[in-house]
Amino acid sequence: MGPLAVNDIISSNTNFFLAFVIGIGFGFVLEQCGFSSSRKLAGLFYGYDMVVLKVFFTGGVTAMLGLLFFSLFGWVDLNLVYINPTFLTSAIVGGLIMGAGFIMGGFCPGTSFCGAAIGKIDAMIFIVGLFIGVYFFAFGYPMFETLYKSGAMGSPKISTMLDLSDGVFALILVAVALGMFYVSEWVEKKFPREEY
Amino acid sequence: MKPLHYLTLVLLILALIIALVPQNTTRPYKLSAEQLLAEIRTGTQFVIPDEVADKIIQKDPSIQLIDVRNPREFDMFSLPGAINIPLQDILSEGNVEILNQGTKMNIFYSNGSTEANEAWLLTRQLGYQNNYVLQGGLNYWMETILNPTKPGSGASSDEIARYDFRKAASMALGGGDVSASAAPVSASSSSTPKPGVVPVKKKKKASGGC
To answer: Which uninterrupted H or E stretch holds A18?
Structure first.
C-alpha cells in the first residue's frame, strides 16, 4: 500500500501535516537526548561522547530493517520510495565542509534549532552562520554549479553495486553498526571526561 | 544484561531474518478478485459511443482517447485526438503519467472491445483511475455513429432523436465511408503517437539526516 503520499492514500497537505508532527517529535527527542548541547557533537570528535554516532546509526539501521520488513509484508512498495540522487564529488566536498562546521560550531542544522528553541545563544549564532552559508551558496550558485553536479551517479543502491540482495547487505550493515557501537563504548572509556 | 547487548540481540535476529528470506518483488494488487468481478459485472468501465461522439464533437478537453491497437492499425484509422498506446506497451514506464492521473477521462478503444477491456483490467488492477472503455469498440462505432441505420416508421421519438444525433455526429466525424479515413484526425495525434504529456518526475524529497 505504501508509500502513503505517492500512492495518494494521503493528500500532500496531510503529508505536510505529518511531516510537521514528525518534525516536532524529532526535535523533542533530540532535545531530550541532550543534543541541544554543543558538547555532545564535539564529543564525537574528541571521543568522550559517541552518542551522536550511536543514535544516528541506530536510527538508520532501524529504518532500514523496518522498510525491508514492510516490503516483505507487502506494506510498502520499495520501488516507489524516493531515493536522493547521489553526486559523489559534491557529497564528499559537502561532507567535509559540514563535518568541519560540526566540530567548530558544535551543532548540526537540526540540533542548532533545538538549541535555539531552548534559548541557547551559541545555537542562534550558529543559525545565523547557517543562513549566511545558505545565501552564499544560493547567490553564488553559478560558481558552484560544476562542482555541485559533478559525480552524478543517479540513485544507486550499495547493495546493487555489490551485487548483494538488500537483506544480506542489511545484515552486513547491522554487523558494522554493532561493531561501531562496541568500539565507541571502548573509545568513551579511553577518553573519559567528567562534567561536561 | 546491558542495553547494548539487548540491542545487539534484537538487531542481529531481525537482520538475520531479513537476510534469509527472499526479497518481496511482487507489486501489491489494488483490488481483490471479488471486487474486480463486481466491477466487471456492473460494466462501469464502459462508455457508450454516443457519449464519446458527443464529447469529441464538443472538443471536450477532459477526455483522452487511447487506441490500444498496433501502430499500423492506428495509422490507418483512429478516432480524432486519439493517442496510440499498443496493448503490449501499456505497462511501460513512460505511459504511467498518462494512465495514472486524476484529471482526464481516458477511454481505451480497440476494434472490438476485448483489447481495450484488457488494457482497462490491467490499469484497474494497478489502482489507476479514470480509465474507461469504448463500448463495442470501433466496430460498434462504425455501426452506430458513422453508419447509423434509420429507425423504422414505428420507432419511438427517443430512437428517432438518437438517430438524428448519430446522423449529425456521423457528418461531423466524417462518417459514411470508412476507407476514406476522413475522420478529422488532428495533426498532432497522427504525426506523434505519444501526446505532449511530459512525464513529471515524482518529487518526493526525503531530506537528509539532522
So the answer is: helix A12-32
pLDDT value, residue A124 = 94
Edge-to-edge strands, sheet with B46-47 = B46-47, B131-134, B105-109, B63-67, B83-84
CA distance B53 to A53: 65
Residue B82: phi and psi, rounded to 5, are -75, 150
Tell me the shortest Cα–Cα distance from A26 to chain B, in angstroms: 9
pLDDT of residue B194: 40
Minimal CA–CA distance to B53: which of B107, B13, B16?
Answer: B107
Over range B145-169, report the average pLDDT.
82
Q: Which residue has the cell 503517437?
A: B193
Domain ranges of chain B: 33-191
Average pLDDT for residues A139-161, to the nearest whole number?
Answer: 88
Give the residue on A whose Cα is nearest the Cα of B207: A84
Average pLDDT, chain B: 78
Q: Using alpha carbons, select from B144, B142, B148 the residue that is nearest to residue B181.
A: B142
How many domains in chain A?
Answer: 1
* A3 upstream amide cis, omega within 30 of 0: yes
**What is the rounded average pLDDT of the residues A20-46?**
88
Tell me if chain B has a CB within 8 Å of the CB of A170.
yes
Domain limits at A27?
12-190
| Residue A180 placed within a domain | yes
Maximum CA pair distance of chain B? 95
Backbone angles phi, psi at B48, to 5 degrees: -75, 150
Q: Which chain B positions have a beta carbon within 8 Å of A186's beta carbon?
A: none
CATH topology of domain B33-191: Oxidized Rhodanese; domain 1 (3.40.250)
Model confidence, pTM: 0.57
Q: Which of A77, A175, A181 sits opposite B4 (nearest CB)?
A: A181
Helix (H, G, I), strand (E, B) or coil at B65: strand
Are residues B28 and A5, on separate chains, in Cβ contact within 8 Å?
no
Percentages helix, strand, coil for chain B, rounded to the nearest 5? Answer: 45, 10, 45
- In angstroms, the CA A39 to CA A195 distance is 11
Of B26, B204, B210, the CB nearest to A110: B210
A145 to each of A138, A150, A193, how far by Cα in Å?
10, 8, 43
pLDDT digits (tens, 9 = 90+) for A88-139: 999 999 999 988 988 888 888 888 999 999 999 999 999 999 999 999 999 9
